[in-house]
Amino acid sequence: MFETLQSRPADGILALMQMYKDDPRQTKIDLGVGVYKDATGLTPIMRAVKAAEKQLWEQQDSKVYTGLAGDPAFADAMIDLVLADAVARDTVAAVATPGGTGAVRQAFELIQMARPEARVFVSDPTWPNHISILNYLGVEIVRYRYFDKDSCGVDFDGMIEDIKTARAGDVVLLHGCCHNPTGANLNLTEWRAVVEVLNDTGAVPMVDIAYQGFGDGLEEDAAATRLVASSVPECLIAASCSKNFGIYRERTGLLMAISQNVQARKLHQDTLAFLNRQNFSFPPDHGARLVTMILNDAALRADWQAELEEVRNNMLGLRSQLAAELQRLSGSDRFGFIAQHRGMFSRLGATPEKVEEMRQKNGIYMVSDSRMNIAGLNEHTVPILAKAIVDAGV
Ligand code: LMR
């Protein structure tokens, strides 16, 4: 029977990871997959994570199942981190999921279950796996304008015009901070205008927040998500711990569904637990437990926040260095957006041909849409990248 299977196109980001591995050049530079790297190219285990793992090893005396929603203490800690007191806790249903992707997948399934005719509006561009999962589930996708390729900032007017066409019960997917793949983000005034459109149309927001703490700081990066959650009747939030806790392979995420009242919350909670049961039963616990321990222990939390700040400032420093180097080499300010963008990524605005040219000639690996992982750089590789960009005539 399996001869009926059709081969699937490889995920572009994951295929690039493999190409990079296979390239024998010592001088190659990996700006592909969204994984933080320090100046030596290592993706370190954060100090607080190591310390929590040690404590856990010493103290944990059972690996028995948690609950279908995961440990409620994880949900509480994460709701506090993402939402603080933006909404009443008893209106938030939440389940632990295998990573942020798991939360996104469960959210899309919830949408499909609640309203099969709902369309999901996604930014153009968005994280390619959003599109892939929506297509896989057969959910209708509508793209809204987002990236302005001339300024490399947000096409805000285009975005507003497009999301105004959403109908009540459609879903508008928004990146809470550090937009992936562009690095271009809305300011709070613009977020308020988006909220107004959501309320006018009756469309339901779904916020994907995978990089809290990588942009302007933990609180600053959550501000838009909190604004949305506190201003609309219903909202979904998919949060990832992969990047800000550096626990990628532990698959740690949380899906939150905010409803109008406590009764609706119960229905949400039961449905989300049901969906977990259908897809993987109990969510992974190890990463979630580490996150809970860190967030609930003052010393671990302080150390985690300090290290996260180091990570964030390192990326900001690399952004400024790259923008300055490009300005020096090109004699133009047109790359200033790199210092304005936030998070791990910037979309350079180069054609796939130029991206390919830089890969072949210089061993520089960026996603074909010219998304660069800024954390893949260090102070020595920034000038090499800048020269390659200018030489390629980007
Ligand atoms: C990325 O965008 O590179 C990351 O979110 C990793 C992934 O799974 O694609």
UniProtKB/TrEMBL annotation:
Tell me which stretches of the chain form a coiled coil. 301-328
Q: Cite the Gene3D superfamilies for this sequence.
A: Aspartate Aminotransferase, domain 1, Type I PLP-dependent aspartate aminotransferase-like (Major domain)
Write down the EC number: 2.6.1.57
EC class of the enzyme, as a word: transferase
Q: Any idea where the Aminotransferase class I/classII large domain is?
A: 27-389
Which superkingdom does the taxonomy of this entry point to?
Bacteria
Q: Which cofactor does it need?
A: pyridoxal 5'-phosphate
Q: Which Pfam families match?
A: Aminotran_1_2
Query: What keywords are annotated for this sequence in UniProt?
Result: Aminotransferase, Coiled coil, Pyridoxal phosphate, Transferase
**GO molecular function terms noted in the UniProt entry:** transaminase activity
- Please state which protein family the record places this protein in: Belongs to the class-I pyridoxal-phosphate-dependent aminotransferase family.
Query: What does the subunit section of this Swiss-Prot or TrEMBL entry state?
Result: Homodimer.
Q: What protein name is recorded for this chain?
A: Aromatic-amino-acid aminotransferase
Q: Which organism is it from?
A: Roseobacter fucihabitans
